[in-house]
Amino acid sequence: MGEATHLVLLSMAWLVYFIVHSFLASMKVKRWVESVYPRLMPWYRITFNLLAIILLIIPLWMVYSRPGELLIDWTGYAQWITHFIAVLAIAGFFWSSRYYDTGEFLGLKQVKENVCTVEDQENFHISPLHRYVRHPWYFLGLVLLWSRDMDVGFLLSAGLVTLYFVIGSRLEENKLIIYHGQVYRSYMQQVPGLMPLPWKYLTREQTRHLLDRACEERSAAQ
C-alpha cells in the first residue's frame, strides 16, 4: 500500500472516529436513549467512554504501525525542552483531575446511583486551570500532542485532532450552556477556549462572583 493511500485511509479512520464520538455525545442521541430505553441511561456514560477507547485503537495503530521519515525531530536542547513540557502537561492532567467529579466523568457515579437523566449531575465550578482556559484538558492534550517528534502520519493526525478539539469544544459548550445557562455565557466572555491568553483570565474575585451567580440561578430554578 502506497503512502498516499495509507494517509487517505488514516484520515478516514480519524473522520469515522470523530463522527461516531460526536454522534454518541450529542444531546439528541442521549435524549432518544432516555425516552426509548430509560433503563440504559445509567450505563450510557461508561459505555460511551469504553467505546471511545476501543475505537481509538484503529487510528492509533495506523499511525504507529507504519513509521515514516521524521518531519519534526526535536534534538539537543529542544528535545529536553519538549520532554519537560510534555511532563508538565501530564502532571497537569493528574493535578487538575482533583477538581473534577471523576466518578461522574467515568460513568461510575451514574451506575451506582442509577441516574437516568441526560444532564450532567455536576454543578458549575471553576478549577484553578479553568480560570485561564475553558477547556484545560484539551489544552494540555494539545501541548502533549505538538511536543512530539512527527512523521507525516503523526503530523496529519495531530492536525486532524486539533481541528476536532476546536469543533468538539464548541459542541461541548452548547451543552454546557443548556446545563448552566447565562452564567456559562458570561464565563465564555471572560476566559479563552483552548489557548490561555496572558491578558484574559478570571481573578479570584471574578471567580467567586460567577460561582455565586451560578448558585443563585440554581436555587431560583429549584
> β content, as a range?
under 5%
Distance between the termini: 60 Å
- Rounded mean pLDDT is 90
Strand order of the largest sheet: 1-2
- Can you count the helices? 10
Global structural class: mainly alpha
Major β-sheet, in short?
2 strands, antiparallel
Radius of gyration: 20 Å
Shape: globular
Secondary-structure element string = HHHEHHHHEHHH
Helix content: 55-70%
Draw up the topology in text.
Blueprint: H1 3-25, H2 27-36, H3 44-64, E1 70-72, H4 76-96, H5 102-106, H6 108-113, H7 136-146, E2 150-151, H8 152-180, H9 182-190, H10 204-221
Helix pairs in contact: 1-3, 1-8, 4-7, 7-8
Describe this protein's structure:
The model has no long low-confidence stretch (mean pLDDT 90). A two-stranded antiparallel sheet has the order 1-2. α1 packs antiparallel against α3, α1 packs parallel to α8 (152-180) and α7 (136-146) runs antiparallel to α8 (152-180). It is globular. The protein has ten helices and two strands. With 222 residues, the chain is an all-alpha fold. Helix content is 69%, strand content 2%. It starts with a helix and ends with a helix. It has helices at residues 3-25, 27-36, 44-64, 76-96, 102-106, 108-113, 136-146, 152-180, 182-190, 204-221, and strands at residues 70-72, 150-151.
Concise summary:
This protein has 222 residues and is mainly alpha-helical. It contains ten helices and two strands; from the N terminus they run αααβααααβααα. The chain has a two-stranded antiparallel ribbon with strand order 1-2.
